[in-house]
Amino acid sequence: xxxxxxxxxxxxxxxxxxxxxTLAGKPLVTERPNxxxxxxxxxxxxxxxxxxxxxxxxxxxxxxxAAQALYQGQALTARLDGxxxxxxxxxxxxxxxxxxxEQRIRELGGRLSLLNPVWYLGSFAIGAAAGAAGDKxxxxxxxxxxxxxxxxxxxxxxxxxxxxxxxxxxxxxxKVDEAKHGATAKRAGGAExxxxxxxxxxxxxxxxxxxxxxx
Length: 215
Ligand SMILES: [Fe+2]
Ligand SMILES: [Fe+2]
Hints:
The protein is globular and about 50 Å long. It starts with 7 loop residues before the first helix and ends with a helix. It has helices spanning 8-23, 47-77, 84-107, 116-132, 135-159, 165-187, 195-214. It has 7 helices and no strands. The longest helix is centred in the first third of the chain and has 31 residues, at 47-77. One fe (ii) ion binds next to helix 2, helix 3 and helix 6.
């Protein structure tokens, strides 16, 4: 198969395009339907239940913006021999998550985090740095990120009302996908990150989630 070579300018244009799609427009999604569509059995939520769902789904949406930026940053610098295609599929699935969360937030009458551009830029830089550190580390970084995301999703599933079946259906599917992404990255040779790096990642995600819950 012929490999296409892109110039640095091509890469710049593609990255700006991706960033704008993620933040404002239509991200490149997969063929999968929104899992919330299959759930018509939604009970009426109280104002406080609705508010909590909006906040938590906003945190998840913000996490998916960051995930998208991480993948894009990583794709720019990493070699990813033999796994690039699978990682690109994973990035597309993150876009599904992005869209499903946004749809749910809008349905509930909420808004997205105002700081999404900040998280995008920061995460893009972190992804590019991880990619430059070498595939074993950047894949290890994906595996660790997904592990931490799953912990968040579990926490959110405990916090979101049992009545909010639509948000829950989205989060359950996300959990399945993130576990798959993490396993793919590990199988492709992702190394276990050093403890201080893992701790730093937890700290950054705490700041991000704490902020997106409010702003
Ligand atoms: Fe995701
Ligand atoms: Fe993921």
